[in-house]
Amino acid sequence: MKKLLVVPVLALSYLLFAAFNPTVFVQATIGEPDTLDPHLAYDTASSEVLFNVYENLIAYKGQSVSEFEPRLATEVPTVKNGLIKDGGKTYVFPIRKGVKFHNGNPLTPEDVEYSFERGLLYDPEGGPMWMLWYAIFGVHSRDEALEEFVGKSVDEIFDKSGEPKAEYKQKVIDFYKQVVDPAIAVQGDNVVIKLKRPYSAFLNIIAQSAHWAAILDKETCIKLGLWNGKADTWWKYKNVAKEESPLHTYANGTGPYKLAEWDRKQQKISLAANESYWKGPAKIKKVIIWAIPEWSTRKAMLEKGDADTIDVSIEFVDQLKSNKDIQIFRNLPTLAVTVLLFNWSVNPNSKFIGSGKFDGNGIPPDFFSDIYARKAVAAAINYDALIQEVLKGSGKRVPTALPQGLLGYDPSLPLYKFNLNDVKTYLQKAWNGQAWQKGIKFSIAFNEGNTARQRVAEMIKMYMEMAAPGKVKIEVQPLQWPNFLDATQNGEIPVSINAWQADYPDPDNFIFTHYHSSGDYADRQGDAFKKFVSTPRKELGGKSLDELIKEAATQTDPQSRGKLYTQIQKFVIDNCISVPLYQPTATYVFRTWVKGWSYNPMRPGNDFYSLYKQQ
After folding, report:
1. Mean pLDDT, to the nearest integer, of 237-261?
2. First vs last Cα of the chain: how many Å apart?
3. d(Cα 151, Cα 171) in Å, to the nearest integer?
4. Which of 404, 45, 485, 52 is nearest to 242 (CA)?
5. What is the CATH code of the structural domain delimited by 44-244?
């Protein structure tokens, strides 16, 4: 009954935009942002907003993922122009003058320094700042760098209130003064960033789509209650919870659009053109990004012209192709993978594992630490049907979470196979037969509105219950995007379906993310997973998977690096660490009056500044 009441309200609302308006752009999507804090956000819904509101020092040039152009810096550093020095360890960025933040404050080199340092010191759990730590300092987190500097674990350094213990306080202050601050320095009109060692992907990591390198207004941030820029207070601002961040629902960038409103009740973001934008004001004066989970509503909005573009799952594209007022861009190459993740150590308080034990009404929290439990799920997925029938051919199978197009991709590696007999056999072996004897029950979650992920979850439910009638019960649970993110990041979901789009075009961004104990997905996969990949293995020559991943990332010879990635992936496949579902191709749909659109696989959505509308 509730659902029936919602749709007419939406219909009345979006009819306000029914007449063609060349200055208003409406985008109907499937989920609202998670947060607008650039140093915490790590999802495409948030990233698209941040991409249009904030700016970085440099940007990708056109459709390239390897060429750059200046943005808030006036030049892209190169060895040739003398702005890359010390054998690739020093980058100099001349900062553009005459740029203003949305509140009128002028951009200064000090804003750039503050933005990088605040992000590095904040470094929230599950956030994107590991990339800057890795690129600049060669470690994967603030805590790792701090422990290295102090010589003690974080638990020993800080007391329960989060304050450094007396004997370590000066060391914690010196950590900022001697490690963080010297790495990002203002020199006249330039900002100089010094890397601990050369890292070839550094410019990719800070280019425009990477909002973790967006430039903030120092003065406003301090007024809002963020880090005050002082060495003896920085730890008070680390790991601030999402909702407690002053930037959670507030934004003040230099980009072509200002945040006008975030209506949480309607899941609607409104952006207004920045009329003082340094490159000149945008042609589109108002952008509305509206989360509409129901496909039928999004489709009706596009067909009537009440939306200019919508999110469309590939299985629905054919419903639009006969409409002469809609343009469709299909089979665009991506650097992305969709992967089914197992949580090897679920939060015991999770509502997604039922009773939490083997009694037919749940599973123990560590159920998926058993390889046969993981293999049973892998064998219950009809991969060919998923790609051909659900994705309509707009995707391809990949052996691991490394997409085709990057170094290390090896098409000769084996693929998991759909087989109901194997599902039964693996279930009978799981936990020495306990799973089969006592029965299991758990939930698979996906973000609401994502039909492809929903079909994968339904497929696993159907085939596992078919292979083990009366012994397996699976619930398929749709969650709104922010709730899905929170539940996965809190380690509550035993099986989840996730998509990873490249933060930067390098194999380490996928291999580290999915398979390293410090990767972004590590918390979602649990402590048992972390222990497994960080423990030395005989089959890896006495090294841990973590060690091999680090070795591959720092290897400079492409051929040697490729061999290491093949070894890593063989181990991953043999142990069914996670299940790669497909590498998608991208599809975008617009009204034909939308002009100026181009595609770059590194962009987290639309660049509204480049768009205009013309009938």
Report:
1. 96
2. 40
3. 10
4. 485
5. 3.90.76.10
Instruction: Give the separation between CA 553 and CA 434, rounded to whole angstroms.
Output: 40
φ/ψ of 602, rounded to 5, equals: -90, -10
Evaluate whether 278 touches 255 at the Cβ level (below 8 Å): no
Q: What tokens appear for 356 in the block?
A: 């939490």
402: which DSSP letter? P
pTM: 0.80
CA distance 314 to 358: 39
Domain 336-584 is classified in which CATH homologous superfamily? Dipeptide-binding Protein; Domain 3 (3.10.105.10)
- The CATH classification of domain 2-14+262-332+586-613, taken from the options 3.30.70.380, 1.20.1250.20, 3.50.50.60, 3.40.190.10: 3.40.190.10
Look up residue 339 and give its two tokens: 């992967």
Contact 584, 568 (CB under 8 A): no
Residue 143: closest CA among 132, 134, 156, 154: 154
The SS3 assignment for 478 reads strand
Q: What is the pLDDT at residue 18?
A: 53
Cβ-Cβ contacts under 8 Å for 111 (sequence gap 6 or more): 215, 216, 217, 218
Interval 250-264: pLDDT, tens: 999 999 999 999 999
Give pLDDT tens digits for 474-485: 999 999 988 998
Tokens standing for residue 30: 């499937």
Contacts by 552-561, CB closer than 8 A, 24 or more apart: 552/408, 552/507, 552/508, 552/511, 553/508, 553/511, 553/512, 558/407, 561/407, 561/408, 561/507
237, 244 in Cβ contact below 8 A? no
Q: Where are the domains of the chain?
A: 2-14+262-332+586-613, 44-244, 336-584
For residue 412, count other CB atoms closer than 10 A to its CB. Answer: 6
Q: Do domains 2-14+262-332+586-613 and 336-584 have the same CATH topology?
A: no
Tokens found for residue 233? 């207070």
List strands edge to edge, sheet with 184-187.
84-85, 90-94, 190-194, 184-187
By the 8 A CB rule, do 56 and 208 touch?
yes
CA pair distance 26, 32, nearest whole angstrom: 14
Please say whether the beta carbons of 589 and 310 come within 8 A.
yes
In the chain, what are the helix, strand and coil shares in percent, each to the nearest 5? Answer: 40, 20, 45
